[in-house]
Design goal:
By secondary structure, this protein is of the alpha/beta class. It contains 8 helices and 10 strands. Strand 7, helix 6 and strand 8 form a beta-alpha-beta unit. It binds adenosine-5'-diphosphate.
Length: 237
């Protein structure tokens, strides 16, 4: 398993945001589906070690995040919800800056940048300023950047928020391709149309996992949207 989480809990003061969450992922696409407030961002903050908790255990590519944070984080790529590109730099300059932060430079960095941009179909935009790109291309630049250090696990926190339908489906398809090539992807969303029947699906609600399985099987044949609303909507038990 490339990402395993056992019995993870986290509270903001008296507010329990995660209550004993456990799951284990192998390479492939896993959707983390939950309504607003479910605990998705809190889980991502713990996985990327922005927050720490004594309650539970996280292993990334076999490394315990608490005991060996450097090795664990070296295997992790993250695309946060808030964009973090420098608008006045080109696509390639943004990636080169990030590569330098990871100790990558020279021809090694150049090759990694070319490879990552090609994977996201962004190579021909390498010289464009980010400010000139549309939202979908900015997102793809951020995903390419998250691949530069060859992570085994890629986290994306609602990466399609604010994008139009065409950009949304292009990004969803690109990230499914990465998963098909052997990446372990954890994709947080509240949008059921981004999830394929063959994807792994975790449904998170009020800090608890309500479902874990292959999307097409979890729903028992019902449309995912109906199943999701029945579990988490205002009329859920
Ligand atoms: P999601 O990303 O699924 O929308 P979050 O992880 O942001 O969910 O939030 C989980 C719960 O924790 C929610 O009830 C939210 O109100 C609460 N929460 C999030 N951040 C804070 C904070 N800084 N202080 C207090 N409560 C918070």
């Amino acid at each position: 398993m490339t990402l395993s989480v056992s019995n993870l809990s986290f509270s903001y003061g008296t507010k329990d945001a995660l209550k004993g969450v456990s799951f284990a992922l192998a390479p492939g696409f896993c959707a983390l589906l939950g309504p607003n407030g479910a605990g998705k961002s809190t889980l991502f903050a713990l996985l990327s070690r922005l927050f720490t908790t004594p309650d539970g255990r996280i292993e990334i590519a076999g490394h315990d995040l608490n005991a060996a944070p450097r090795d664990a984080l070296a295997a992790l790529g993250v695309v946060f919800q808030q964009p973090t590109l420098d608008l006045d730099l080109t696509v390639a300059q943004n990636l080169r800056y990030f590569a330098a932060l990871h100790g990558l430079s020279g021809s090694d960095a150049t090759q990694r940048i070319d490879r990552a941009l090609t994977r996201l179909d962004m190579a021909e935009r390498a010289g464009e300023k980010v400010r000139a790109l549309n939202g979908g291309h900015r997102r793809r630049t951020e995903i390419a950047r998250a691949l530069l250090h060859d992570p085994k696990v890629l986290l994306l926190d609602e990466p399609t928020v604010g994008l139009d339908a065409a950009s949304r489906s292009a990004i969803t398809a690109h990230v499914h391709d990465l998963a098909g090539e052997g990446m372990t992807v954890l994709w947080a969303t509240h949008l059921t149309d981004e999830i394929r029947d063959t994807d792994r699906l975790l449904i998170l609600h009020q800090g608890t996992l309500l479902a874990d399985g292959i999307a097409g099987e979890v729903t028992g044949g019902a449309p995912l949207q109906d199943h999701f609303l029945a579990l988490t909507g205002p009329r859920a038990a």
